[in-house]
Design a protein that fits this description.
mainly alpha; Butyryl-CoA Dehydrogenase, subunit A, domain 3; 2 domains; 79% helix; flat
């Protein structure tokens, strides 16, 4: 009897032991399903947040976008640019900035200067990058000359900003600005003339489009300021 009881007891223990792994195995698919659902839910939440942020940024960009230029301003820009050597690039540079300005020669000239400064800055950055790779004397001189040209254009822009109680445009101020813009154009020409004379290979690495636009934009600004008295008269305006 004792032997039988022992065997029966062993049988019960083994029976319970066999059931335990089966219960754990049945729980694993449920845990896996819950984990997958949590990951999917988290992904959807993050996606919704990102989508909302993109839509918000897009709406803000639309709200802050400048209105299109008026027909009157476009015609004024064409009229001012007609005195330049490169009227097409003059019109494109000024109108593409999409800035709300007064349709008069003084305001248009300021935008022309701003475009010239932006393009010359791009050119100067390109030359500075090349100078870091190849510190040739002619290239270093070019960097210095472009820096001087930028300083002269910025000085011209500062002169166009009237201080309290000061007239924006006077004959003396126009003469000064014309001198500075002319010097800036000379500095840029001297820079590249020096590179060409030395046969520097660096010249071929300079973006031709940026170089040409910079040259044309400065030339356009110079032509506008040089013809400012004539343009003011054409628009029925007088010197301040």
């Amino acid at each position: 009897m004792n032997a039988i009881s022992i065997f029966r007891g062993y049988g019960k223990v083994n029976h319970l032991g066999d059931q335990t792994p089966d219960r754990r195995s049945s729980q694993r698919p449920l845990l896996t399903t819950i984990a997958i659902a949590a990951v999917v839910l988290l992904t959807l939440v993050i996606g919704s947040i990102l989508a909302a942020a993109v839509i918000r940024d897009y709406r803000e960009e639309e709200e802050t976008e400048s209105p299109p230029l008026s027909a009157e301003l476009l015609e004024s820009i064409k009229s001012v640019c007609s005195v330049t050597q490169f009227p097409d690039s003059c019109f494109t540079a000024i109108s593409s900035l999409n800035t709300s300005i007064k349709p008069d020669p003084e305001s248009i000239f300021k935008i022309s200067l701003r475009a010239a400064i932006a393009e010359l800055s791009n050119l100067s950055s390109s030359i500075n990058t090349l100078n870091g790779r190849n510190s040739a004397p002619a290239l270093q001189d070019c960097v210095t000359q472009l820096d001087d040209a930028l300083s002269r254009l910025n000085e011209s822009m500062s002169a166009m900003e009237a201080r309290p109680g000061e007239k924006t445009l006077t004959e003396a101020k126009i003469n000064d600005i014309q001198t500075w813009v002319s010097a800036a154009m000379t500095d840029q020409d001297t820079c590249f003339d020096g590179l060409e004379e030395t046969g520097s290979r660096v010249l071929n690495q300079v973006n031709h489009g940026i170089r040409q636009r910079s040259k044309e934009y400065i030339s356009n600004s110079l032509a506008i300021v040089a013809n400012m008295p004539l343009l003011l008269e054409k628009f029925g305006l007088k010197m301040h």
